[in-house]
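Usage example:
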Amino acid sequence: MSVRNMYYLVAIMLNLILCFPTSGARGSDRPEYTRTIHEYAIPDVALFNQDGKKVQLKSFLRPKDKVIILDFIFGTCTTICPVLSANFVNFQNKLGAESGKVQLVSISIDPEHDTPKVLKAYLKRYKAKPGWDFLTGSRENIERVTNAFNAYTSDKMQHYPLTFVYSPVQDRWFRIDGLVATSELLEEYQKALKR
Amino acid sequence: MVDNRVALRVIVASGILTILLHLLSGISFAENSRQSSIGGLSPVEALKIGERMYREGILASGEPMQALVQGDIPVDSTMFSCVSCHLRSGLGSLEGQVITYPIDGITLYEGITNAWNMRWVTGSKYSKGMTGFLRSAYNDETLAAAIRGGVNPDGKTLKYTMPRYPLGDKDMAILIFYLKNLSVKPSPGVSENSIRYATIVTEGVNRTDSVFMMSILKIMAASNKPTRFSMMALSTIASNPEDSIKTGYLNISVARWELKGSPASWRSQLDDYYKKEPVFAIVGGISNDDWRPIHEFCEENRIPCLLPITELPVISASDWYTLYFSKGFYQEGETAAKYLHGIMNIPQDIPVIQVYRNNRQGLAMAKGFEETWKGLRQQTPDKRVLTSDEPITIERWKQLAASKKQAIILLWLDSKDLSSIDMLADAPDRPKMVFLSSTLLGKEMYVLPQKIRDIIYITFPYRLPVDFAKSEPSFAGLIKNNQYPAEYPITRAKINFNLMILNKALFMMKGHFYRDRLLEVVDMMQDETTMSLYPRLSFGPGQRYLSKGCYIVKLGDGVTPNMTPVSGWVIP
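Running the assembly step on the lines above writes:
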């Protein structure tokens, strides 16, 4: 067993022990998550969207008048990403006409598999509306981005649920650790519109 | 899990099950003898509809299953269904920090202790000190309550990541019947303490390679003890002595299935072998021919086939049971198209010609290129298709060069066809670029005429020779000399890697020897970046081609030319 795997094992064991009373069954009525506020230095890398069009990430993620909601997912992910993505599309539906004020961004952490063709099929499967882009790129560039958001994991199967909300008013990012309900994502969106 | 509980259930169910074995190899009736009707359906129909609900999220009515996740997010089966998290075997998954518990027919109906939980997640032997129950056993009523309302038998709320499905009584009965029968009986080819594999060799493969493959598999089988890898794993995180027996000390046997004649005749031979003695999985295998008949046999019988050595795999986005190293020849064609498309200074209207023989190799390369090229919104390339015995004369080369001036020519031909390729260099309107395949050329790649090397580009699907020097010592030790890939035994390296994956998977299965589980644990493996021929072998749920890309390289000068990449690792 490699040292990396051993660390992983220890982390899982600690996680299990620490959250044991609610592991697999929980008493609370609402899902839990943590929220912190950050300023991230976005790397000036070129990624590609679901149409194969180049996207300069630094400018794309810093619009003057739009809230950005971003996550890191991959096309064949079985557990975390489907929930994040279902939330994205439900969020779009709930916002309705107001959805033009938000840019949803998913960035692949499996660039070898997630070609633009795969990304496009994924968005179609989730019935994504305009305003949700799924980006991929070289592994090197993807890792620069995940590092910038303190979201890097050595392997995609070790990733964990994260959502980032950019407030153009505050010029800061809200980092959400954990899976949230759409109502909670809407609350974060409203907070991002305020000073 | 191969234990007494399973054995008892198998005995009870064995009579009825025989009929279904060929249809549903992972599923068997455990306690259906008293149930003549499930939601108005026969047991056979209920299993079929139940599987569709579980895997595709389609109700008996044909409508998609609806659910609510995270409290307020409506989802339907186009997004995900039970199988997404719990997987085909029902034995659950571990993705990042999210644990999805088993919902197979055994685990659901027994109480789960905290010690069991720890062992299931980590395999830790330290779980023995843990006490207490995680949950009580489900019955049909409490299971329905969990699926509908997210409440476990002890009244606790399940995580909101588990969708709440408002199923009607009929659909609920069908789904519960399916779950009750999910992974309750070991797969064919598995008994209390043994696993039987087969490997496949077809006519025409290199005898040295096939002998090597059989010898290494026989060593694994005959030793009847943990292989080096599983010994290492067991020494660190073995669950307990009982599990060590289950994972490491199984009697393993490997049958050699030799297929003779043309691929069209293979299917009946495969059926005969399987009928004589079913196997748990196909391990490796070598063929120079089209793998399709074997692929289809495995798909129809739901038999995993791990990493066969073939350059002619079936290209499919949805098939499940065969895991390939790559898309082979097709992938080299794909890569050439993607690379060409990315070159900025190539005129949009530049002529592109594919030249290949009307054989499986040529057709696969040309198809990979053309489909990718057209997908990139380029015009259909021209083609020159040669019959299998048509010679390529000097005149033919001249005609090719003159037909389209300054063209890009893709020569999907082997070294015998390229003996006079230097004619292209002498032509008045020599091509702008010529693409070749390193897999088709083999070691002859290094003796391509000097005067044409400036316009030659070669698809190269493995780790670059220069990068081997940076590899970990354990892998570098496998390399016999510096002539890679001309002399390096690629086939042997693939066989070694296959065995490593098999041993790792065997351990990760923790005694749950179900065919679907074998592929599921492989899917959950971390990407491999050091121990294989490839720069990266990328695993992932349902991903069936581990190496996704290819280099484009050029040759340097001289009789022992260097290989220089002109691209990064190109992902088509």
